[in-house]
Amino acid sequence: MGRLAILVAGVTMAFKPYVAFAQQPASPRRIGVLLVGPSLESKEAQAFRQGLRDAGYSEGRDVVIEWRSASGDYDKVSGLAADLVESKVDVMVVDGTVGTRSAKRATSNIPIVMVLVGDPVGSGLVANLAHPGGNVTGLSLMIPDLTAKQLQLLKEAIPRLTRVAVLWNPETPFHAKVVENLKAAAPSLSTRLLWQ
Questions:
Q1: pLDDT, tens digit, for every residue of 76-100?
Q2: Are residues 104 and 13 in the same domain?
Q3: Other CB atoms closer than 10 Å to residue 174's CB: what's the count?
Q4: Which stretch of DSSP H or E encloses residue 116?
Q5: 45 and 134 part of one domain
Q6: Both 64 and 95 in a single domain?
């Protein structure tokens, strides 16, 4: 199963208050899914559907999924997030930092379940990991925290390694933290970093 399928647990948690107060909802709950990179026909979209079925949700009976996909076109993401808010979904499932930011800007009331976010704290999406606050929760890749460990593993795999090229985008919020962590770890591993 893909990472998006794991979010079914988050969606299930978002629905628990409804289940606690009623045996069966009067109408199916509406899930808005915003895919920034993958298409609607992608394996991630299919895994999400399968994850819902595995959790006991039947599409059409228990849930209605409102799908939106930017198919990698970042210029479309904000409009798609706003469209899901206008559709009055009960919860939004969003992939990536760009998508989650757009969803957070579009609503402060609808619960947002994120996936594939590199650094939700550094990106300003949540207050902290233990107590996210607001309406955003979900899964993080924890990229900044893992970067030094990845460099260490690379050095263990290739002991003669002395130089490592690092590709980064200064406009991606968590990349600066990644660079900072790599700079701190490199000297102890006798490794020189080359930046691009």
A1: 999 999 999 999 999 999 998 899 9
A2: yes
A3: 24
A4: strand 112-117
A5: yes
A6: yes
Exposed, middle or buried by CB within 10 Å (0-12, 13-18, 19+), for 93? buried
pLDDT tens string 145-189: 778 888 999 999 999 999 999 888 777 767 777 888 889 889 999
Structural domain boundaries enclosing 125: 3-140
* CATH code of the domain in which 81 resides: 3.40.50.2300
Which pLDDT tens digit goes with each residue over 5-16?
Answer: 445 545 554 555
Q: What CA–CA distance (Å, rounded) separates 118 from 169?
A: 13
In this structure, are 43 and 70 located in the same domain?
yes
Q: CA dihedral defined by 142, 146, 148, 154, rounded to 10 degrees?
A: -140
Q: How confident is the model at residue 22 (pLDDT cuts 50, 70, 90)?
A: very low
- Rounded Cα distance between 120 and 129, Å, is 8
Answer yes or no: do 129 and 100 share one domain.
yes
List the beta bridge partners of residue 66.
Answer: 32
- Indicate the range of 51-65, 95-109, 119-133 predicted with least confidence: 119-133
SS3 labels along 20-86: HHCCCCCCCEEEEEEECCCCCCCHHHHHHHHHHHHCCCCECCCEEEEEEECCCCHHHHHHHHHHHHH
